[in-house]
Amino acid sequence: MKNIPEVKLGIIAVSRDCFIVSLSERRRKAIVDAYTAKGGSIYECKIAVENEKDMLKAVEDVKAAGCNALFVYLGNFGPETPETLIAKQFGGPVMYAAAAEETGKDLINGRGDAYCGVLNCSYNLGLRKLKAVIPEYPVGTAEEICGMITDFLPVARTLIGLSSLKVITFGPRPQDFFACNAPIKALYDLGIEIQENSELDLLVAYKAHKGDSRIEEVAADMAAELGVQGNQYPDLLPRMAQFELTLLDWAEANKGARDYVVFADKCWPAFPKEFGFEPCYVNSRLASRGIPVACEVDIYGAVSEYIGACITGEPVTLLDINNSVPADLFKEDIEGKYPYTLRDTFMGFHCGNTPFCRLKAGAVKYQLIQNRLLENGGDPDFTRGTLEGDIAAGGITFFRLHSNADTSLQAYIAQGEVLPVATRSFGGIGIFAIPEMGRFYRHVLISKRYPHHGAVAFGHVGKALYTIFDYLGVPDIAFNQPKGMLYRDENPFA
């Protein structure tokens, strides 16, 4: 099942009728040539848009070519109405950017005034309430424009994915986990569909897959992934394979008019006893394929994970912002070796949903906390099935799209890293370091009433995330503010 869209990008150049159209056409070709030389692929619409009839023909052309994302290029000043109506007629993600003047030796017929034209373009987009991506500095040479296109592609891929996404849930939130129970209206406002099912529906579907001829093949694939050291409970693999097939088949049978699916499942307390295992390892495998399965019916967590998967094209995870780093561990393993204070660090943890490829050394184990609760701390039986290990070191972005109690969207973005320091603990867990995390924790996570779950993308993708959240109209986008930059509610005398 392919769950992340492929982007086919087109370029349309526009030209104000009192400017020289060949200037815009020549500059368009220079971009296509430069981008192609870098290994990129972009469909060049040869219709230069000077009026509304041109606009209709150009949009028809890029649609016929299969383009699902578009770059509108102001090669000169540009025609205000036609250029902005492109966004309306096209319907998919659109980026606008403009040509910089190439040389001081040709500022008569070689001057396009696109620097000015972007202002009018922006005004007219706003006038028509049309959404578009405009880069931070949207004026550049062909080479610079290529960089803007590269930045736009993961944004476009994500917006395409969200526009055809269905969230499939099983069960209500666990008792006393109100933080995961965010209002879903805002997701419908974004065009996302939600299908809510009971845990019983899932159990019935799971039992119907008993004896499925594909189980042996999936179990073998699990064993190959885990290796000898990671496969500590081989007897579990057929049951977990059966569950994996259940979820994949449910997705195909229920995605309906949508192209992409994520899950949000109630994974405790009843699940392990009735299914005979913990679902975590299976959840990690689907996340590796771009099909996030959020724990504890965290719908916004699932959507956040999907955003990260679309941006990076790689596995993501969902973690608790879990526990502080003990002072003695910090002093022994972190202080003086890395540029962080104790309050910059914390441990991100979940039972075992982080993909195998993101762990230093993963193994299927048992869920210690659930074992205490459900099996009285005895020999683990049905509380087995977590994927555990320290999360591999490297750059990360911790983020979340959420709805507050008033059904208004909000989001946060914080870039940092997982440190190459042993956690000395259990679960899928890592020591995270984010600059000024202590202040971010107090004045964003606590002050803005965020739940404990955060999505993790493995890399620094804050720029793309901010662009996406801004495009979606999220009114409150928070970030880990640097030292000296006060949060609105931060006591300046503290």
What report would you give on this structure?
- Helix content is 38%, strand content 20%.
- It has 494 residues and is of the alpha/beta class.
- It has 2 domains: 9-163, Rossmann fold (3-Layer(aba) Sandwich); 166-479, no CATH class.
- Strand 6, helix 6 and strand 7 form a beta-alpha-beta unit.
- The longest helix has 22 residues, at 142-163.
- It is globular, with a radius of gyration of 25 Å.
- 50% of the residues are buried.
Main sheet characteristics: 6 strands, antiparallel, barrel
Approximate strand percentage: 15-25%
Please state the average pLDDT score: 96
Query: Which of globular, elongated, flat, extended, rod-shaped describes the shape?
Result: globular
Strand order of the largest sheet: 10-11-16-15-14-17
Radius of gyration: 25 Å
Report how far apart the termini are: 53 Å
The number of domains is 2
Structural class: alpha/beta
Beta strand count: 18
Which bin fits the share of residues in helices?
Answer: 25-40%
- Detail the poorly predicted runs: none
- Tally of helical segments: 16
